[in-house]
Structures are given as C-alpha cells and as structure tokens.
Amino acid sequence: MEKPEVVVTKDEGSEGSESTETGNNRRAAKHGPRRIRGDINKKKRESAEAGSEGRRIQVLVFYSSLTASTEKIARTFSQELAASLGCSTEKEAESRFLAPRVLDLAEIDFDEYFITPPKSESEPADCFYLFIIPSYNIDSINDTFLEHLRETHHDFRIDTSPLATILGYSVFGLGDREGWPTEEEGFCFQAKDVDKWMAKLSGRKRAYPLGMGDWKRDGKERMSEWTAGLVDVLRQLEQTGTLGEGVPGSGDPLESDDEGEAEDDGEVPDEEVSVSKAAKGRSSGSLEDVEDIGRIMEASQGGDSGKRSAAPLAIDFTTEGKPAAKKAASAAVKEMVPRSSPTYAALTKQGYSIVGSHSGVKICRWTKSALRGRGSCYKFSFYGINSHQCMETTPSLSCSNKCVFCWRHGTNPVGTTWRWVVDPPKLIFDGVKENHYKKIKMMRGVPGVRAERFAEAMRIRHCALSLVGEPIFYPHINEFLGLLHGERISSFLVCNAQHPDQLAALQHVTQLYVSIDASNRESLRRIDRPLHRDFWERFQRCLDILRERRFRQRTVFRLTLVKGFNIEDEAEGYADLVEKGLPCFVEVKGVTYCGTSTSSSAGLTMANVPFYQEVCDFVVALEKALRKRGLQYGIAAEHAHSCCILLASERFRVDGKWHTLIDYDKFFQLLEEKGPDGDFGPEDYMGPPTPEWATWGNGGFDPRDQRVDKKGRPIEAA
Ligand SMILES: Cc1cc2nc3c(=O)[nH]c(=O)nc-3n(C[C@H](O)[C@H](O)[C@H](O)COP(=O)(O)O)c2cc1C
Ligand code: SF4
C-alpha cells in the first residue's frame, strides 16, 4: 500500500538515518526565512493499515544554530530517538513511526509548518514537533521564528490555535550558564518563549515539559532525561493514540493551568487560584478516580497479597488499654468511604483519589510548585525534603477530632471506633503510588514544569502521612510503614495525640509529629472538638509517650496558631507542654484559612489568620518561656513564605550550627541493619548543617527557585 511521508525538499543530502535539513544560508534568516516547499512524499510500506490504527507518526525535529553545535546535537538526538523507537530509515517500514526529520529553522518556510502542519496528499501522517533551541541575546533566526509564531497567533484571519492538529510538541533549550547563569538572567530564554508560543498555537499540546541544559555542564544528562521522557510519551501515543491525561486534546486537562490568552504571558498560574480551578473542573476527574478504585479493588481480589480482610477488624479506640480486635460478622461491616457515598463524591471532587475504601492520596500544591521551580514547602528548608518527590497520603480518611481549621471536616468521616472494612497495606501502598504517579503525569503539559524535576518526581522519596484523617487509626499502620521504608520512602507521620496505645505501638518513622493545637484543656476542646470524652487524658498520655520515645523517634510538636483561639497568653502553657514531652523540634505555623462553611460555622474567618510577624513574636516568647524553665531550645529555621518557624532542641546544634536536615540514606541504613524496632535514635541520622538561607532571620526561601506573586510575576525572596 502506498504510504505518504512528510519530507522537505533539501539543499543538502541527509546524513545518518534521518532526513536532515541543514542551513547553508543563515544570513538569509535575518531577512526572514527562505521559502522551501514542504511536500509529501509517497513511500511504500507493506504492512500498514488504513484508519487511525495504521496512521503514521512523523516526528519533526526543528533546530536553530549560530555556532553549529546545536545542529550536531539535533542530528545525534534524532538518531538516538529513531533507534529507541525502532524507526531509523532502514526499519521505518515496520514501524508506526516514520524516521524523524531534522529541520533547520533557518532553511524552512515557516508557513509550511507553523500555520498549519504539513499535509499529505493521500493518506495523512500525523506530526509531532520537537524543538532544540539555543538562545542568543543578539539577532538570530530565533527572533524571526518567534515573531512568526507571535504573528500567527494574533492574525485575526487565522485560528488562534492553528497547530491544534499536531499530536504534541516539546522543547529543549540549550544555553550557557557561564554568561547567563540563571533563567532570570536569560538562560535559555528563547527556548522558554518557543515553548510558550507553541502552547498557544497548538492549543496546549505540550507533550513533555521544557528541558534545559548547558552542553558544557549538564546538557547531556538533561537531554537524555528529556529523551527518555519523550520516548515514553511517543510510545503511549503509538499504543493509545493519546498523550495521556493532563494534556489537552488527548485526555483529562484537570491539572493543567490555563495557558491563557493574555498578551505575551499566559503562564500566570496562581497556586491558590489553580487549586480552586482544578477543583472546579474535577467532576470528570472524580469519574476517573471511581474507575480506578474499581480496578484496584478488582486487582486486589485477584491475588492473596492484595486481599481484603475477609472478616474486618472492629477496633475500639474509645477507652484506653490494648486495642481489642475482634471478628465481626462480615455482613454487618461497612466500607468507610463507599464509592456511592456523598463523602466519596465530595473528596474526589476536591482532588483526592480514594484508594480501597478508607485511604486517600492527593498531590499537594508544593509538589506542583516545586515541579515548576517556584519553591518547595517548609520541609525542604527545615529537613531537606524535595517537595516534587513527596507523596501526601493517609491510610485512614477517618478521624476522631473535628478541628476548626481542618480543611476537610464536614466531608471526611469521623469516629472513635474503627468499625469499617480494613484494606490490606499492600493494596493501599500500590494504590496510593499508582494514583500519585498518575497525578504527577497529569502535570506534564502544565506550563513551567521542568523536565528535570518532572523526571525526578517519578521516584517518590518522601511520604507525608498527614493529608486528612488520622493515620495511626489504621490498624496495620506499621506494616504500611514497612512497605514505604522497603522502597526507601521516608515517613513523616502526623497524629492528633488522641490514640496513645497506637502511638506506643508505633515502630520507627523518619519523623513523628504530634499536633499540639492548644495549651490547655478548654482551648483544646474548643479547637479540636474531639469526639473522645477523655480527650485531655489521652493527649497527656501521648506527651508522656513522646517523652519516653525522644531518643528513639525524631519527635516534633506541631503548633498551629489560630488568632483569637490559641495564641494569646498561651506561650507559657505551650512551654509547659514542651517540658512534658521534650520533643526534638517544635514547628510553629500560622493557620491557613480554607474558607469552608464548616470553618465559618466554627467562627473562623480571615481575622483568625495571624500575620507572620505575630507568629515570630509568639515564637520568641515561647523560646523565652522555655529558657526560663531551663530547657535547651533555640529558634533554628524559618520559612516565611508559609508562615512557619522551627524551634529545635540543642541536641541538634553542633559546633554552634543547627543540624535540622535529615540524612535519609543513614536512616534507611540504620533501619535495614537494626530493624523497625531497632535501637537507634534521631542523632544517628542527623544531616548536615541547615543551609544558611533557611536559618532564623534569613527567610527560608530556596535561592534556586523563583518566587512568584499571585499573577505568576517574579518577586524577590523575603
Ligand atoms: C552571541 C551569543 C549569545 C548568546 N546568548 C545567550 C543567552 O542570552 N542565553 C543563553 O542561555 N545562552 C546564550 N548563548 C549561549 C548559546 O545559546 C549556547 O552556547 C548554545 O549551545 C550555542 O548553540 P550553537 O552552537 O548551535 O549556536 C549565547 C551564545 C552566543 C554565541
Ligand atoms: S511535606 Fe506536605 S506540604 Fe510538603 S511537599 Fe510533602 S505533602 Fe506537600
């Protein structure tokens, strides 16, 4: 059967296994591109079939080059891509892919490729555009090319997204970090522009994040990551005909920010706005989640390891003493969050993926922010967590408190007794990972996502067990932790100080948090609104356990300050609690207002959110109160951006320097050597000194990242 092939008539012969357009008249570029007709070449391909199944895919690799290095790089890249896809010239007859074409931007007619994609005369091949673009701060073909893209987008006679029929695109930028060390100073600025304009012209078909590198430094490494990611995307295209979720035109665009229509920007994601935007559009996403659960459940029923407990455990948490596990009649035991329940619908609408019947996972805003190089959460500054490699999850969506500032009460189930079906840890572990990766992949087409961080994000390294609900409520929490640690994923577990028996039975975690939401009984009752009658006694007992465990677990008090509830005159009371529990660290954070009707009904408004200065004043007062009691604590670090300050025990000050970072490799090594109940403590995996920029007085914003305001405009770090 006759098969078309997109080719371009050439001045020079092709080299290697790919057809290549080389430039020999770059001077012409200054006066606009030279017109060379694109055409469709008919070529034999025996095994091809008609219809979308048999449609060929033509990868076009566009490049520009002043000093010739990019030309070579583009050709080598193209050969490697052809080898990975099995479509070099000799093999292309057997492949769905045609051999990639390498095209010099200085030689082609832009109208042939950038007003509409090249068309074939008979059977069409769909195009996939790749760009390898160096940047120059002097006039070059890049300027002409960018001008063409801009004009095309704004030409009222042409559709604003005339390239929407391409399968996808991706850009790799080359630059020189010696002369242009940072992006703000112009590193790869033209690649960023091409990426932005192509998003507009293609109707946001960014198939893989923008990659950037300096060939003299990290260029090869960055490019091989980018290439590996592209091969995955192209394979997916070949198999499914789509780019996957998150990329408009091919799947679910829920996590994609609007590329916008504003003049020359469009990349204006506001983290808060994007959260609500995403939430708004999530109705279709929740359907996806529902289907997932179905798959996970089916899979779980297939194998032993994933099987649910035939007779679920009923565990009474209301009274202290050893948890009494007894078999209940399976017919009587319900799922905590059944798929048909309003709770399920409400949680999935908010972006949670429900795994099994009582666990949840959600990609947090800091993970998204870090993927775009716009800052990580305070745990990066304090403990060295990479936010883009962090998974936020919980094995129990249910909780025994109804805290006034909880983001989710009203939607998440509450109870003092585990009276639901218990899912096995493996089912939860596999399900949360699958859903986390799925959500990360959905970020692929989001403007500003960095190829390097995207590639790193495909390896979870940290798990924040803090989403919503109470993780130690889950009867198999230790087994679940074992699965995390087995894959060298660190655990940051936050509990609500209401389950002393479970706390006492907890094995090693990387960092163990207890929420300390008030300094006295009445205040705790008002803020946490606990379901347990003996909440204060439970709270006190948890503090005793933390004290006993302080040389075994890396313990942290987490204080959430709510103006009008728990700040005023409470520094002395908190100091008493610190004296009782002697935690390794005290994290103090201003409450984040979430504006739910429940928080409003609890009397919470924006007026309850403290200013950063008020948090600072409180911390200074707390430190003073601790010193007055002879307790050796100091203010170690801050993250002004998230209104969070860290007090640390002098145990973590070595030679006058705070060491709040964690040596994760050492933690896993100790765990492997000594076991989950092993005899080792926080000092044994204490990391290097806290970076200067994160210490008290320096703001805590990672200097590698770029802070942006609500409209995405760069701002100076505090
Ligand atoms: C005149 C000139 C201007 C440059 N301007 C920039 C720049 O603004 N930003 C940047 O990241 N790199 C800049 N570079 C570095 C080039 O983008 C980089 O060296 C690239 O790999 C060159 O590719 P080529 O050899 O294909 O032209 C510049 C290089 C030259 C020679
Ligand atoms: S620690 Fe929490 S806030 Fe930070 S990246 Fe992980 S989930 Fe997000």
From TrEMBL:
Compositionally biased intervals (Acidic residues): 254-273
InterPro entries with a match to the protein in the record: Aldolase_TIM, Flavodoxin/NO_synth, Flavoprotein-like_sf, rSAM, rSAM_sf, tRNA_wybutosine-synth, tRNA_wybutosine-synthase
Record-level Gene Ontology MF annotations: 4 iron, 4 sulfur cluster binding; FMN binding; metal ion binding; tRNA-4-demethylwyosine synthase activity
Cofactor(s) for this UniProt protein: [4Fe-4S] cluster
Coiled-coil segments: none
Radical SAM core domain mapped to chain residues: 383-631
GO BP term, example: wybutosine biosynthetic process
EC number: 4.1.3.44
Basic and acidic residues composition bias: residue spans: 1-13, 36-50, 702-718
Keyword Metal-binding: yes
Keywords assigned: 4Fe-4S, Iron, Iron-sulfur, Lyase, Metal-binding, Nucleotide-binding, S-adenosyl-L-methionine, tRNA processing
Gene3D superfamilies: 3.40.50.360, Aldolase class I
Flavodoxin-like domain residues: 59-231
Keyword Iron-sulfur listed: yes
Pathway field: tRNA modification; wybutosine-tRNA(Phe) biosynthesis
Reaction catalyzed: N(1)-methylguanosine(37) in tRNA(Phe) + pyruvate + S-adenosyl-L-methionine = 4-demethylwyosine(37) in tRNA(Phe) + 5'-deoxyadenosine + L-methionine + CO2 + H2O
Similarity comment: Belongs to the TYW1 family.
Protein name per the record: S-adenosyl-L-methionine-dependent tRNA 4-demethylwyosine synthase
Protein's organism: Thermothelomyces thermophilus (strain ATCC 42464 / BCRC 31852 / DSM 1799)
